[in-house]
Amino acid sequence: MSELADNSIDAVVTDPPYELGFMGKSWDASGIAYNTEVWRQCLRILKPGGHLLAFGGSRTYHRLACAIEDAGFDIRDQIMWVYGSGFPKSMNIGKAIDKASGATRNVVGVGKSGKNRNVLNAANYPDTFGGDYEITEAATQEAKQWEGWGTALKPAHEPIVVARKAVDGTIAQNVMTWGTGGINIDDCRVAFVSENDKIESTTKNQHEDFGTKPMTDNTVYGDYSMMKPNNYNPPGRWPANFIHDGSDEVLDLFPNSKGGAYPSKRGQAVATSFASGQETEGGFRKMGDDGSAARFFYCAKPSTAERNAGLDGLQKKKADTRSDVAAGMWKDKNAAHQNHHPTVKPITLMRYLIKLVVPPNGIVLDPFLGSGTTGVAAIQENINWLGFEMNPEYADIARRRTGHASF
């Protein structure tokens, strides 16, 4: 980055190391994500008003955000990417107590891996992932007291720092001079499927309804706080700082609610429904007329086909530690994959983030390119991009994936 000119990049969208030592990888425990100088370089090369989006881990996000802020960025927001496919790395405390005392646990059954598998046991028996496993019971009184207790929650979200370089003058002046400083709201809206996806009470004045009826589309869309203007017809729902993977587990967190409306009184039931469909259109959650209120941007985790696109002929590599399996990266610990990077982000997600902050004809930089997803996403969005990757194996994967995306 030191070789790049000042004020030459429009946005930085990146997935830096989470500094967790994931899978024993040295690059995930170097401290570089906390290095203020890295983010000072990003600040220097960004145009005034340019945005920085950086993923972080739930345990280490605070140090990442502080480093970015200390470098001179303004922290503007935090986007949450929420998913239901996380895998807990938890220790069964009851089992640990039995082991410490030398007691032998009795086998009381055999479990099947897969959807119905007990995730706590799965974390304790990663070598059996993909096959049957033994179900045991506590052998000592002390273990019985702590049976069912663990040491970790299931990971279900990754926060994204939303930061911005200080603007030059006013926002209007900055946009006219540098072409940066804004967020692409309309192109990132969650599109309506039909007129029934809008709230029926839009003909009422919000002042008249406030506190007695469900919120009108002014507040749901996010465009106006109290009163609906004449001839107002937005193309979709205002993009939120929440992104989900569309899994049943995540959708179940949301109440059934017509048009995203909420009851006027705390605890009051909502009788109407608005369920989401499972299909997607252009990376956005396709919503029907009935279903959940979880109508935010939708993005599933990357499939094997997506990860490996463009890597035909590249030698496959097996998972090198059992942590790969415990993390839910691959179902078969003996399988080999061409894209063996452990933290590949979905292309759809990166396309959305790029679209959100990169202006037309702009340049997006990823200083932690990994297997090249940001580059692939930028190519698919017809956005100029630049990326750095220090690992030769990952850099080769990134070159192949982005080369494939260019065709």
Account of the protein in words:
The chain has 407 residues and is an alpha/beta fold. It folds into 3 domains: 9-80 and 156-185 and 345-405, Rossmann fold (3-Layer(aba) Sandwich); 93-146, no CATH class; 194-234 and 254-293, no CATH class. The protein has 14 helices and 16 strands. Strands 12-9-3-6-2-1-15-16 form an 8-stranded mixed β-sheet, with helices on both faces. Strands 4-5 form a two-stranded antiparallel ribbon. A two-stranded antiparallel sheet has the order 7-8. Strand 1 (9-14), helix 1 (36-45) and strand 2 (46-55) form a beta-alpha-beta unit. The two termini are 28 Å apart. Mean pLDDT is 74; it is low at 115-130, 199-231, 257-291 and 319-334.
How are the SSEs placed, and which strands pair?
Blueprint: E1 9-14, H1 36-45, E2 46-55, H2 61-70, E3 74-82, H3 93-101, E4 106-111, H4 119-124, E5 133-137, H5 141-146, E6 157-164, H6 171-178, E7 190-191, H7 206-209, H8 217-221, E8 236-237, E9 242-244, H9 248-251, E10 274-281, E11 284-291, E12 297-298, H10 304-308, E13 317-318, H11 323-326, E14 336-337, H12 347-357, E15 363-366, H13 373-380, E16 384-387, H14 392-405
Parallel strand pairs: 1-2, 1-15, 3-9, 9-12, 15-16
Antiparallel strand pairs: 2-6, 3-6, 4-5, 7-8, 10-11, 13-14
Helix pairs in contact: 12-13, 13-14
